[in-house]
Amino acid sequence: MPDIVIETPRLRLRRHRAGDFDNCAALWGDPAVTRYIGGKPMTREESWTRLLRYVGHWELLGFGYWVVEEKETGRFAGEAGLAEYRREIEPSIEGVPEAGWAFVPRVYGRGYATEAVTAALQWGESHLPSKRAVCIIQPENAASIRVAQKCGFRESGRATYRAQSLLLMSRDE
């Protein structure tokens, strides 16, 4: 599958490559990043599995997550995209693209997440059959809730995933 690159005013979104592993492992190994996503840093092995899952999404489903780079410097800023995880979650979100994002702490507060997620959602609207998307967020994660709201998501209820109550947010445009 060819690389699908999206450019925004400040960012470049591109598919993951094997050479991204060290950046991905550093991202997912950072306690500030995983505080609200799983609650604990990932090992390098877990980060490798995540990277393979990203590549697999594109190969099997034709959509997935992108590496987010700063256009000006080429530096790794994080990851954002759409996925189908087939989570054992109640209520089920199977079949609906799930938006997600994670960024390195050095770029927090710059609006990169909103810019990248907006670009990913616009791509999805043009390339996926449904305009609907969802995201799940821990209720304490105020920064991600703000990003979701800026991107058009609205709280549609609560979801239970791995014995944890999460906000279920939907975007129907």
| Largest pleated sheet | 5 strands, antiparallel
Tell me the fraction of residues in β-strands, as a range.
Answer: 25-35%
β-strand number: 9
Describe the global form. globular
Secondary structure category = alpha+beta
Low-confidence stretches: none
Please state the CA-atom Rg, rounded to the nearest Å. 15 Å
Structure in a nutshell:
The protein is α+β, with helices and mostly antiparallel strands and 173 residues long. 32% of the residues lie in helices and 28% in strands.
Structure commentary:
It is a single chain. The chain has 173 residues and is an alpha+beta fold. The chain has 5 helices and 9 strands. The chain has helices at residues 21-28, 31-34, 44-61, 112-127, 142-150, and strands at 6-7, 11-14, 65-70, 76-83, 89-90, 98-103, 133-137, 154-161, 164-171. The strands form 2 sheets. A 5-stranded antiparallel β-sheet has the order 1-2-3-4-6, with helices on both faces. The chain has a 4-stranded antiparallel β-sheet with strand order 5-8-9-7, covered by helices on one side. Strand 1 (6-7) and strand 2 (11-14) form a beta hairpin. The protein is globular, with a radius of gyration of 15 Å. The mean pLDDT is 96.
Helices and strands in order, then pairings?
Blueprint: E1 6-7, E2 11-14, H1 21-28, H2 31-34, H3 44-61, E3 65-70, E4 76-83, E5 89-90, E6 98-103, H4 112-127, E7 133-137, H5 142-150, E8 154-161, E9 164-171
Antiparallel strand pairs: 1-2, 2-3, 3-4, 4-6, 5-8, 7-9, 8-9
Helix pairs in contact: 1-3
